[in-house]
Structure formats: C-alpha cells, structure tokens
C-alpha cells in the first residue's frame, strides 16, 4: 500500500483524474506560428503608426527579426530594457531595444544582484506592473519585438532617459483583442483570422480528437476554459474540431478572464449565460453542465462535486501560459497542471536507451514528422536569447562560466505536474499511463515528456540549482 502511495506521489496519470480541463489558444488550438506572429505584430504596429503617430518604419519587418521573440522575457518599461532572468532573479542576458548588451554592460547595469522587481514578479508570477511586463504567451510575444523597435526608434530621434510608450502599446492590444472586436470586425487581427482561418490555425490531429472521445468514454468530465470570447471560441473550435465540437465537452467556459477565474477569491465573478454570444444575467450558482461566460473556479468545483458525487474530485488543467493557466490553477485551486510548451519541439533530444524497449502502444507520438522546420518556427530557439531553459552566467573575461536554470524553467518545475510539447505527444498513450511528475524530491528533468530539453539534459551535471 505504501509503495502504491509512493508511486502515486512521484507519478501522475489521467486515469486518476475526474475532470480534464483545457485552455483553447495554443493548447487545444495550435496556430501556424510564423503567420500568426506576423499578423499580431502587424496588428499592433498598424495601430501605433496610424492612431498614435509612430514611425512608419515599424510597419516593415526584416525576415529574421522575429528571432527576438522569446518566452520568459521581461520588459523594464521605463528603461526600455528586455531581460532574461536566472532562477535567483539575476540578469542572464539583456537588450536595450533590440540591441543586445555585452557582458560588461550587463554587469555595469545590473551587477550580480537580483533584478529590482524580481520579488514582485516571482511571488505571484504576475505578468504586469506599472514598471514591467512579462511575455509568457504567443499572443503577446510579437509585441516584445515591436516595443524593442519602438525603443530603437525613440533613441534615434531623441536621447531618452525614461520611456512612456507603454500606454500606447496597451491601447493597441486592447483595440485588437477587445471582446467586441470579433463581432465588429474591428482592428486587424480578428477580421484576418475570420477570413483566412487555414492560414493561421492548425486543424486538430485525428489522434487528439480520438483521445478526447476516449477521455469522455472513460467517464471523465471534459472542460474547455478559455479567456477568448464565445464568438472567437466558436470559430476556432469549428475549424479545428468540426461543427460538432460541443459534443467533446461537458462544460465550455468562455471569456473566463484568467487568471482572475482562479484567483479572485472571495470576490469571484459570477457565471453568465449566453444568447447569440451575448452575455446574459449573472447566475447565483452553477447548477448544470453547459456553455457559460466569465465565472470562477470555486463555483465550477462545486458543480464538479455534484456531477462526480465526490467530496474532492481531482482536476487536471492543460494550458500554455504560466501566468494565466498553470500558476493560478495550481496555486489557488490545487489542480494538477499540464504545461504545453512548444519550446520542447525546438530543443529535441534522443530518447534515452532504456525507454526504447517499451512496447509501441506505451509510447506517445512525438511529432517530429509534423513539426515545422526550425527556420520556419519563431520562438522555439532564439539565437539572440538562447535556450529557454538554461543559460550561462555572464562572467568577466577569462572567468569560468557557470550554467544556471532560467526563472521560466524554475516556474515549470514548481507549478507544473508535467510539461509536454503538444497534446499530440500524449494522445496515443493509454489513459492509465503513469508520467513521472515534477516534484521537490525528483530530478529537475523528471516531468518533461516525452523527453527533457537537450539543454537541460546534457548539462544536468553542470547546471547549478540555486
């Protein structure tokens, strides 16, 4: 019995879960990244140039400039600096605008102490304050390149000490992504995706559709919880899953306003019903499965208790944003979390020999055949920023360099149960497959499936854990 409990503690299986929840964008619905990155960049740049009078040069983009985009970057808004942080908060790499700082400049600017806002950002994995912004998902990331180019442009025209372009950037984001934008054909983003869905969206692989049905047949309650509004959600789901997409899920929650869906306690937002994608009256409680808007994890959990007849139903949530999905679902709701990390595709490693002997039906499909070539895939590995997982401490000349984990990497092992490159990577596994989970007493690479990132693995002995 003790051995069984120990195994459960160090491993994770979908068979043990009562409810399985999914984020939509970049989790269930994967995008053609090069095309969507360019569209997002253009939609923000267009607004800054036409509405706010910024330099027209921002509208042209050199082919390789998206290499600047790398998840985990933090923008110091007032200074115009972008930072890559080590797990202890020291700065591993930085750029002013798009221009990388040298080791000497890094030490001169930041020294070897933790970055001034690290305490705030790391405590709640918060994405934004008045002085910084954390880029942690693909909807934001092209904005990092645009902001960096804005800094370059402002420096050219004027010797800036402090920057105040951020309010305009926020206005550009709100203009393109506001709730009514899809319906009103407003901005550049939604009209374009509506008119050319195939250009931007990848259809859901048959293996994943079969797997979703399998989960449901096994008695799991399937949840879709997305911050996208219901009209955009419908477009995506019909395109990637088909017109019968609602049959895959017991409960669909749109405009969930994550992370507030998990974190706004005790001032939770009520659930609302929908009519023709318009939000209706607020509900006092959630009484039955269906399609809802807004809401909160506490009332959802009460419904799950009712549906399962259990006092403590076990929920797992799949998502791609540490800030909106993984951290809040784990921290506030104590759900299991599966982090969808496409960066694992750009950091492939050969499968260790001992797993080669596993029977075929026990192996997940690792999608090397369907993964786009790396030169077509922005963000997987940025030449300018290096590995998402580890980096060298900037040493003085001739000083020995030490490899350390990035702050992003530490968040993964702290708040995720497991991390996978895509749903397709596990869709062919039996539902009772047991994954090694991230835990304080296991190897820091344990929870990556199907294999750890090469950067971590090859340096596991030399990576310093701070």
TrEMBL record:
Keyword Transcription regulation (UniProt): no
Single Gene Ontology MF annotation: metal ion binding
Pfam families given in the database record: 5_nucleotid
Record InterPro entries: HAD-like_sf, HAD-SF_hydro_IG_5-nucl, HAD_sf
Alphabetical UniProt keywords: Acetylation, Hydrolase, Magnesium, Metal-binding
Keyword Signal attached: no
SUPFAM superfamilies found in the cross-reference section: HAD-like
PANTHER family (alphabetical): 5'-NUCLEOTIDASE DOMAIN-CONTAINING, 5'-NUCLEOTIDASE DOMAIN-CONTAINING PROTEIN 1
Family: Belongs to the 5'(3')-deoxyribonucleotidase family.
This protein's name: 5'-nucleotidase domain-containing protein 1
Gene source species: Strix occidentalis caurina (northern spotted owl)
């Amino acid at each position: 019995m003790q051995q069984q409990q120990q195994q459960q503690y160090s491993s994770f299986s979908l068979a043990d879960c009562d409810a399985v929840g999914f984020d939509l964008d970049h989790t269930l619905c994967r995008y053609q990244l090069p095309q969507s990155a360019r569209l997002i960049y253009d939609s923000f740049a267009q607004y800054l140039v036409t509405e706010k009078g910024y330099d027209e040069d921002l509208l042209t983009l050199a082919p390789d400039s998206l290499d600047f985009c790398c998840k985990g970057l933090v923008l110091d808004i007032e200074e115009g600096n972008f930072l890559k942080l080590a797990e202890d908060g020291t700065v591993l790499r930085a750029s002013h605008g798009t221009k990388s700082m040298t080791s000497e400049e890094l030490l001169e600017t930041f020294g070897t102490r933790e970055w001034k806002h690290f305490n705030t950002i790391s405590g709640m994995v918060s994405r934004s304050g008045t002085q910084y912004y954390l880029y942690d998902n693909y909807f934001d990331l092209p904005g990092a390149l645009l902001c960096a180019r804005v800094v370059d442009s402002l420096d050219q025209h004027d010797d800036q000490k402090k920057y105040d372009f951020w309010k305009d950037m926020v206005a550009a984001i709100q203009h393109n992504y506001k709730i009514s934008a899809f319906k009103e054909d407003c901005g550049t983003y939604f009209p374009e995706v509506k008119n050319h869905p195939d250009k931007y969206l990848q259809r859901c692989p048959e293996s994943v559709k079969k797997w979703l049905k399998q989960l449901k047949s096994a008695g799991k309650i399937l949840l879709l919880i997305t911050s996208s509004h219901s009209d955009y959600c419908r477009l995506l789901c019909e395109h990637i899953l088909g017109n019968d997409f609602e049959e895959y899920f017991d409960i669909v929650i749109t405009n969930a306003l994550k992370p507030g869906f998990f974190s706004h306690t005790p001032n939770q937002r009520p659930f609302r019903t929908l009519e023709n994608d318009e939000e209706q009256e607020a509900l006092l409680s959630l009484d039955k499965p269906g399609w809802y808007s807004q809401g909160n994890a506490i009332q959802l959990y009460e419904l799950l208790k009712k549906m399962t007849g259990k006092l403590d139903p076990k929920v797992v949530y799949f998502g791609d944003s540490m800030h909106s999905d993984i951290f809040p679902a784990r921290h506030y709701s104590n759900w299991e979390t599966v982090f969808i990390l496409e960066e694992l595709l750009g950091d492939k490693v050969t499968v260790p020999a001992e797993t080669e002997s596993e029977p075929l039906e026990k192996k997940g499909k690792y999608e090397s055949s369907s993964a786009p070539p790396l030169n077509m895939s922005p963000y997987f590995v940025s030449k300018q920023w290096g590995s998402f997982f580890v980096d060298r401490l900037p040493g003085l000349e001739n000083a020995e360099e030490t490899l350390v984990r990035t702050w992003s990497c530490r968040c993964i092992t702290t708040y995720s149960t497991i991390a996978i490159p895509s749903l397709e990577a596990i869709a062919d596994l039996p539902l009772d497959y047991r994954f090694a989970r991230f835990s304080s007493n296991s190897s820091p690479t344990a929870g990556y499936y199907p294999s750890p990132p090469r950067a971590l693995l090859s340096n596991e002995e030399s990576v310093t854990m701070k």
